[in-house]
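REQUEST ID: PR-0412
SUBMITTED BY: lab tech R.K.
PRIORITY: routine
TASK: structure prediction, single protein chain
INPUT:
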Amino acid sequence: MFHNPLIDKIRPYKLSSHKAWETNNKNQVLKLDWNEATIPPSPLVKQSIINLIQDGKLNWYPDVNNKELIQSIADYNDLPFENIQYFASSDSLHEYIVRCYVGQSDRILVISPTYDNFRAVAESNGGQIQFYSLSKNFDLDFIQFSKDLKLINPKVVYIVNPNNPTGTLHSSKELKILIENHPEILFIIDEAYYEFSRETVSELTKSLENLIISRTFSKAFALASFRIGYAISHPKNIQIINKIRNPKNVSLFAQVAAIEAIKDIQYTINYVAEVNKTQIQFIKALNELDFLKTIPGAGNFVFVKFFRKEIKENFILFLESKNIFIRDYGHIPDTEMFARITIGTQNQMSEFLEVIKEFIKK
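STATUS: complete
OUTPUT:
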């Protein structure tokens, strides 16, 4: 046996079905299962990629220190250049964080249920995962949590804000107090859905070393296929991660796309505003149904609880017959009755509601 023996003990990260890629006419698909943007990227991105194909140095390795990109991200977040580094997705950043900060038997505390990839990566490096469950309403009692941290004494705490899949939005004020009161713990705050909530603790990275924030261009910026994300942290942490970061792994296409997406920030702002407005209307419509209920939350998605398992299963199958795909969360013990629905534009979610009417009639 040549593989890492830790792999044998790991529960693999459960990928959502990617049936959308198996359909013959992908232009007719309403893909609401992976929380990607439901619109194309900014036209500036498309034009920049066309220009890059025509005139770019495609035979060169990509820029390994794209200062324009780092400065663009820094300016977008109103932070110093030194607090930023880009990666080939936030998942890639998580892998570097684990390699730099997690060793054999280090205790990692993960708020649960949540995005599961960080757990799998940490376990592969010998980290000992302990889950900290949200309440039945998917809330987090910060006062009790702070007390429990002293008893559990983890090296690393992983929190997604807004949380995925529950949508729970943790107060940045409460998070700030928590991080400041526990300087001995490294907090990984995953802000993949920041643009939709505007809650962040990024300002703390100017002074505190026990915080690393991960961000992505996959959601609000509509660049999921480009695989690009970034870290916000104290310069000392950026320097540590840079020691093992492979700068060639972020393609030139991804770098250029991210720069152009930030340039056309109004495009993203308009999309986020429509999603947030549509979410309110969509949830209101769902709450009028008698076979499910919605969980209040933030992000570009809604977490839905079905009252009967067979209804959930039939509902998902019916949607798939209409080329509409949502995320089933039946694989997690606490969420067997739940599914997650990405929120798209007003027209897209109106189409979704019409399909629900067909389901009810059937």
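NOTES: The longest strand covers residues 107-112.
REVIEWED BY: pending
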